[in-house]
Design brief:
245 residues; alpha+beta; 6-stranded antiparallel beta sheet; two-stranded antiparallel ribbon; 8 helices; 10 strands; 29% helix
Length: 245
């Protein structure tokens, strides 16, 4: 691991564990250089990463201040529940169930969900709150033959914990699609927003032994969420065709 990444990880952990609480100052660049035995450029790169992820604010003449992040950094390549992500960032969150019903998959839903027409699923609509403010509307569909029963307590806590710990199923991977869509009137009411657009993440989630058991449409307010991923470069092999120089 690169030195700047090590420094970033250590400072991030200290911030989330409140070693450096909100509104406190981080040590100066010179002190950080001494503490981590690193160059100024390396320390500055680590601080820039913390700034970009919403942990600190750097202001000329005022030093580096720890701030309260009101964004959740969702890893695109990961498969984590809302509770897991928010807990890892020490943020105040809660979930409110808006509706729960058994439905039959319509042709329209089948086309976008991966489930077959006529299949019975749970349809669950949940409103997610971040620091006391509505931030996400999740519409989840779960196969009733795999998730036989589900209670409001699990819905408002963590469905994944219920599926894995109570039902003994192993969640394996998801296929995700991210788009921007128009905000409906109902979504504006739920999310208390005037934004005309939302981030929509569609997820088809599969169990370890292969079957898809969940489809989710997750609608995020633009100002509350940031989606991150780390990409590795893989050089593509150039094909040679007859006539190429």
């Amino acid at each position: 691991m690169r030195k700047y990444q090590e420094i970033f990880n250590d400072l991030k952990e200290k911030i989330t564990q409140h070693v450096y609480p909100v509104n406190s100052h981080l040590p100066t660049e010179e002190r950080l250089q001494e503490e981590y035995q690193a160059s100024r450029a390396t320390v500055r790169k680590s601080l820039q990463m913390l700034t970009e992820q919403g942990f600190i604010r750097r202001k000329q003449g005022h030093g580096t201040i720890v701030i309260q992040s009101e964004q959740l950094n969702f890893p695109l390549s990961g498969l984590n529940s809302y509770r897991e992500v928010s807990t890892s960032m020490n943020l105040n969150v809660h979930t409110k169930m808006l509706s729960l019903e058994r439905i039959k998959v319509t042709p329209s839903l089948a086309k976008r969900s991966g489930f077959r027409t006529g299949q019975e699923v749970w349809k669950i609509i949940r409103l997610r709150y971040l620091e006391g403010k509505p931030a996400i509307v999740d519409t989840d569909y779960f196969r009733t033959d795999l998730v036989l029963d589900i209670k409001q307590e699990a819905i408002e806590d963590s469905i994944y914990a219920y599926v894995e710990d109570e039902l003994g199923l192993t969640i394996s991977y998801a296929r995700k699609e991210i788009t921007v869509e128009h905000t409906s009137l109902q979504e504006k009411v739920w999310l208390e927003t005037r934004d005309e657009s939302l981030i929509l993440i569609k997820s088809e989630v599969f169990l370890e032994d292969g079957p898809q058991f969940q489809y989710t449409e997750s609608r995020h307010k633009l100002d509350k969420f940031k989606f991150i991923d780390y990409a590795r470069r893989k050089k593509l092999k150039r094909e040679t065709y007859e006539g190429d120089d």
